[in-house]
Amino acid sequence: MKNFSSGFLILILALTLAACSGDDDSKTWAEGAPRDEDRDEEAVPVEVIELERGTIESVLRFSATLEAERDVRVFAEAQRRVVELRVEEGDAVGAGALLIRLQDDAQKSALNKAEIELRQATREFDRQKNLFERSLVSEQVFNDAALLFDQAEIAVEDARRNLAYTEVRAPFAGIVTERMVNVGDYVTLNQPLFRIVDFDSIVARIYVPEKELPDLATGLDARLTAEAIGGVSFVGSVDRISPVVDPGTGTVKVTVATPRQESLRPGMYVEVELVTAVHEDALLLPKRAVVYDNDQLFVFRLGEERRVERIKVDRVLEDVENIEPKGDLAESDLIVAAGQASLKDGALVRLPGDPDPDDDDGDEEGGDVDNGAETEADA
Questions:
Q1: What 3-state DSSP class applies to 308?
Q2: Considering the entire predicted model, what is its pTM?
Q3: Looking at residue 186, what DSSP letter applies?
Q4: Tens digit of pLDDT for each residue in 52-88?
Q5: What is the pLDDT of residue 261?
Q6: Domains of the chain, earliest start first
Q7: What are phi and psi of 356, to 5 degrees?
Q8: Cα separation of 44 and 342, whole Å?
Q9: Sign of torsion over alpha carbons 89, 90, 96, 98
């Protein structure tokens, strides 16, 4: 029993000594390890650009389909057979130009009959008027003659109108885009015959958010680009702005007038850019240099001793590539354009032309080896 107790005490003593020895080693390693503040700060490799001045535009972009404001269908106003066709699809016509002629024999006969009755009523009215002025007939007889004369005049006007309906004419100058009748067809009342489009009235209708209303005005320049004709751009202008806001979409209808171009046609898809403001001599900050933090914009400007300064950016104007900032930035400032995502205010940076610290360490080590070799050779 005594032997067992002695052995147990010896085992405990050995374990205690081993633990104390381990604590001393750990303490010694921790004291000898370099602390973060003792280590050299590592420079972040970046690229910088110099701010310059130039022209910047504030542009609103939309998509639209071209349409002609003067685009009508011509309908028949009489039930007759087509006897003459004057135009074809693609023909240019002037206002009032004859398109087709309908059978008109009945209308001509009705007009001749009405004109004969008018001549007879005119003679009778003149006779009764002469007698009435001489007090040879009563006023009732004179009034009856005047009534027949008025009715005869109206009948002639109706007959002439019905005869005019047999000649279908263009309501305005334009291009015949569709013909829906042939010679010999019997047309009915209100049957569509032609479609005529005024290509000088082509417009693009866009729907602008109501928040952009303060920047809109008639006469505002607009650029239209049609990919169907090779991405060619045309210059138009804002012709009309709707006085009401659509409550369902929160937008305002804006009509953009286009220039007369042979290549622009109704139904063509175009991209529309409204130029709401132009600044000629503006400080240009490329968007690729901007860091976005929620709804705020920041850039890093290179300062002294290769340290950067984090600057908040407020926008004056903005286009696809650049921002016109207001605030502390100035022309010729060097702004970090690559590598800024991991930067913090006051961070140390390294530019492409700066020496690499790793290369310097290698050179020093290589120099020590060379010196040692020379010493050994001398010896």
A1: strand
A2: 0.62
A3: B
A4: 899 998 888 999 999 999 999 999 998 999 999 999 9
A5: 76
A6: 47-56+280-350 (2.40.420.20), 60-69+201-279 (2.40.30.170), 78-100+169-197 (2.40.50.100), 105-165 (1.10.287.470)
A7: -85, 125
A8: 9
A9: negative
